[in-house]
Amino acid sequence: MRKADLVAAISEKTGVPKVDVLVALETFFKEVKGSLSQGENVYIRGFGSFVIKRRAKKIGRHIKRNEAIEIPEHFIPSFKPAKVFVEQVKSQVTSLPKDSFEEDDDE
């Protein structure tokens, strides 16, 4: 499902015009990004948490030059689904479509 599909589905189920749903969704995304960029996590009960994770400083390798480089400490956004959300998905999803991001079993 893409953003356009999500907007259409919400609009159809609520009766709110697509433009208004799109504005609300974009505002939600903007607020989540803004909160995370200020170091503040976002918690949505029953859905999940948008959190900042710290990545420690480490040594990487520049493959073309075959030399070690230092990767500084940095922070990345992450999503952690709520337990209720995870259990609902586990109980309802029985298989994935062929074009989804399914992991290979032969690894």
Would you give an account of this structure?
By secondary structure, the protein is of the alpha+beta class. The chain has two domains: 1-38; 41-89, HU Protein, Chain A (Irregular). The chain has three helices and five strands. It has helices spanning 3-14, 18-37, 83-92; strands spanning 42-44, 48-55, 58-62, 67-71, 74-81. The strands form two sheets. Strands 1-2-5 form a three-stranded antiparallel β-sheet. Strand 1 (42-44) and strand 2 (48-55) form a beta hairpin. Helix 1 packs across helix 2. The longest helix has 20 residues, at 18-37. The radius of gyration is 19 Å and the shape is extended.
In short:
The chain has 107 residues and is α+β, with helices and mostly antiparallel strands. It has helices at 3-14, 18-37, 83-92, and strands spanning 42-44, 48-55, 58-62, 67-71, 74-81.
